[in-house]
């Protein structure tokens, strides 16, 4: 009959039949209340071997008991990571990895700043080229217009046609009585007397 563990973090391979990696390495009986059993599976003995070599089994047990039970899985993983880095770099350990990551971040930040500066320069150069193109186009259009105005002066409009004088207006007026009377004057009494005198006096035509 296997052992049961009341509180176990999710995603871990639990030891129910065989002893845990810590008890197997330490060659002792794995009790039901073993603090290493939920976090150091017998299928991954190299993890506890690194932790035991760097920190010691008693220190690891004390550190696991000092943190809340909900954070013990993360604590065990952190101890395994630090132990592996300490075995890889005995002088700096995890600080060497942190320093290398900081240097990598700084180099990437410098590269990013240089790329941003290049982008700004490219945009400025492109804007300047577009402005120069527009200015040269305007200058060429203005020069062509000036040359065309010099070579071919603008044609003058034709002179306006002379205005014909209006035809004289003919006024037809009906003859009035006054005009008729002015044209014809009847004989006066003096002429009548003259004729009477001539008729009364016998004037011989032949002597």
Automatic annotation (TrEMBL):
<dbReference type="Pfam" id="PF03195">
    <property type="entry name" value="LOB"/>
</dbReference>
<feature type="region of interest" description="Disordered">
    <location>
        <begin position="150"/>
        <end position="207"/>
    </location>
</feature>
<feature type="coiled-coil region">
    <location>
        <begin position="98"/>
        <end position="125"/>
    </location>
</feature>
<keyword id="KW-0175">Coiled coil</keyword>
<feature type="compositionally biased region" description="Low complexity">
    <location>
        <begin position="170"/>
        <end position="201"/>
    </location>
</feature>
<comment type="similarity">
    <text>Belongs to the LOB domain-containing protein family.</text>
</comment>
<dbReference type="InterPro" id="IPR004883">
    <property type="entry name" value="LOB"/>
</dbReference>
<feature type="domain" description="LOB">
    <location>
        <begin position="18"/>
        <end position="119"/>
    </location>
</feature>
<protein>
    <recommendedName>
        <fullName>LOB domain-containing protein</fullName>
    </recommendedName>
</protein>
<feature type="compositionally biased region" description="Pro residues">
    <location>
        <begin position="154"/>
        <end position="169"/>
    </location>
</feature>
């Amino acid at each position: 009959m296997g052992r049961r563990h009341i509180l176990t973090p999710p995603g871990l391979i639990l030891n129910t039949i065989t002893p845990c990696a810590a008890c197997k390495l330490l060659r002792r009986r794995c009790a039901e209340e073993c603090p290493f059993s939920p976090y150091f599976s017998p299928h991954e003995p190299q993890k506890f071997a690194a932790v035991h070599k760097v920190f010691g089994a008693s220190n690891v047990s004390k550190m696991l008991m000092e943190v809340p039970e909900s954070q013990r899985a993360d604590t065990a993983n952190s101890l395994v990571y630090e132990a592996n880095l300490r075995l890889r770099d005995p002088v700096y350990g995890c600080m060497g990895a942190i320093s290398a990551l900081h240097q990598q971040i700084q180099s990437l930040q410098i590269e990013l700043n240089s790329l941003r500066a290049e982008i700004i320069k490219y945009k400025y150069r492109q804007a300047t080229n577009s402005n120069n193109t527009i200015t040269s186009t305007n200058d060429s259009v203005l020069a062509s217009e000036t040359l065309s105005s010099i070579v071919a002066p603008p044609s003058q409009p034709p002179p306006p046609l002379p205005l014909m004088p209006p035809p004289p207006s003919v006024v037809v007026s009906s003859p009035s009585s006054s005009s008729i009377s002015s044209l014809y004057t009847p004989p006066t009494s003096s002429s009548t007397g003259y004729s009477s005198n001539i008729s009364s006096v016998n004037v011989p035509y032949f002597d």
